[in-house]
Amino acid sequence: MTLAWQGWEAPVSRERNEFDLLVHSGRVIDPASGRDAITDVAVTDGKIAAVGSHIERSKAAQVIDATGLIVAPGLVDLHVHAYHGVNAYGMDVDPLCQATGVTTAVDAGSSGPVNFEGFRDFVVRHTRTRLYGFVAVAQHGVTRDPGDLVHPDLADAEGAARVVRENPEIAVGIKIRLASDKVATDGEDALALGLQAAALCGRPLMVHIGETPLRLEKIVRALRPGDIITHCFTPLAPSVTRRSGELRDGMLEAQERGVIFDVAHAGGHFGFDVVKNALAGGLVPNSISTDIHGRTDALARGFLITDVMIKFMALGLGISEVIRLTTSAPAAIISQEDKIGSVTVGRSADLAVLAIEHGRFTFTDTVGKNLESDARLSARWTIRAGEVHDARLNAPNAC
After folding, report:
1. What is the mean pLDDT of the chain?
2. SS3 of residue 296 by DSSP
3. How far is C-alpha 295 from the geometric centre of its chain's CA atoms?
4. Domains of the chain: which residue ranges?
5. Sheet bearing 102-111, strands edge to edge
């Protein structure tokens, strides 16, 4: 006999069951395949074994009753800082990821040519969340004080490119920050170094904007298809919109030719007015990410990935679209769409079981403006390679 508790049925003997786990009767939303239906997902040996209706509960050793819930591919957060214990921005991302449905996270340049090996060996290989990373042009990764490339002799474009080439299973591109306190002069040399490194390794360049001395129009003109503007809706000048609310010249053209606009909310890079004006002008983000890091409280500041997703829903995007922007879209941006971002038989069983709660809720941007919403989004379970994490037990206020 099984014991049901909050939608979970305790395991029984694996020997007489076809599946290890069954996620039963949830609304499976998988934008990569176009699936949006009430159905079941079965898991065996850490992989998705079957997707279909009316899979018998008795066939599974463990059962999650997902009735009334959304079952999505494991969420992919394109911008985090995970090099804890070494980088000033680093944090152990497992608790927050397991609390919010994130099964894959991408570190945004916390390591550089000098210390990537430590990130790979002591963080990536010991973190349950699947981790990839952008490699900073700055030798030691992004730094707080002094800024990454304030001293140009700390740059190593060739070394960063070499690290990416030698670690294709983890390293997915190059990172630079063009904030005024992170670069020498106007940042044009830093941008050139980033583009050089990206060209040498054949991978994308991620560019941090916000309080950027170089004109944004000039930055996007220099970027290639697949390169990434991160913090794309920052209210810190120059943002993608002018003071009048109109989009800056070249933003839509850049996106049309393949430049990626990534949200990376963080504690200072998300303004509702910027987002509203950008959306009205036709600039929809290519990916929704958080920039969770160890220097700020993502829960208190309202930028857990489920918070950022619901903010976009309150601004007019549908649930399927925000799931696409946190699953198959970022997976494709880092060229991992054949491994992650879809509920597909044979792939790693990475799933996010999500709940939409209806009511009256208030969300805040990074300049203190509020937005009312009739719903909020949270994770119930995060399933990574078949391993089930109760998101409520891993929630920040429960840790």
Report:
1. 94
2. coil
3. 18
4. 4-72+344-398, 74-333
5. 75-80, 102-111, 130-136, 171-177, 205-208, 228-230, 260-262
